[in-house]
Amino acid sequence: MNSTVAAVSSNRVYSFTKPNRDSITLLAGLGVDGDIHAGVTVKHRSRMAQDPTQPNLRQVHLIHQELFDELREAGFEVAPGALGENVTTAGIDLLALPTGTLLHLGGDAVVEVTGLRNPCRQIDTFQDGLLKRVVGRADDGSIVRKAGIMGVVRTGGVVRPGDPIRAVLPAEPHRPLERV
């Protein structure tokens, strides 16, 4: 199956969801042009409270559309942008990518994968019980995070629904994704 961009979303203000757009522009070293989370330093409120000078490893949030299908089967209605992601993907196993993977989105943009999104309790305010569906435990007791991945923009460009996605893995040994 070919990997594609299913939807793109951004928001200039803090809110849980982000409206879908016809396109977004990624800016190298910053994130999504006009998005509240764009910037060199961290923009997530709780992380800013801890240390506002830490680097922004969460410039772009990506979620796989297949998660929405899984959630729908469990009785939740979640659409692209609803969980605050900037890019909704189709046909690529985002959670299996190693840290440092380069995602080529469309013709020009490149996002380097930095880690897993760690969703907060606010997700249950959106839909009660959703947090337990996107964060759980594996058989060995380890935490499993399914709410997408985060990345930084290495090369800017315009990204639109329908654009192809190509993943370039980093040199081995691969490092598994951890929360960022």
Q: Main traits of this protein?
A:
4 helices; single chain; globular; about 180 residues; 13 strands; 3-stranded antiparallel β-sheet; alpha+beta; 8-stranded mixed β-sheet
Please provide a brief summary of the model:
This protein has helices at residues 45-50, 65-73, 122-126, 130-134; strands spanning 4-9, 20-21, 24-27, 31-32, 60-64, 87-90, 102-105, 109-116, 135-137, 143-145, 149-155, 157-159, 165-168.
SS class? alpha+beta
Q: What would the principal axes of the Cα set say about the shape?
A: globular
How is the biggest beta sheet arranged?
8 strands, mixed
Total of helices: 4
Query: Termini, distance in Å?
Result: 29 Å
- Please state the CA-atom Rg, rounded to the nearest Å: 15 Å
Helix content: 10-25%
- What spatial order of strands do you see in the largest sheet? 2-1-6-5-11-8-7-13
Unreliable residue runs: none
Mean pLDDT: 95
Spell out the helices and strands N to C: EEEEHEHEEEHHEEEEE
How many extended strands? 13
Beta-strand percentage? 25-35%
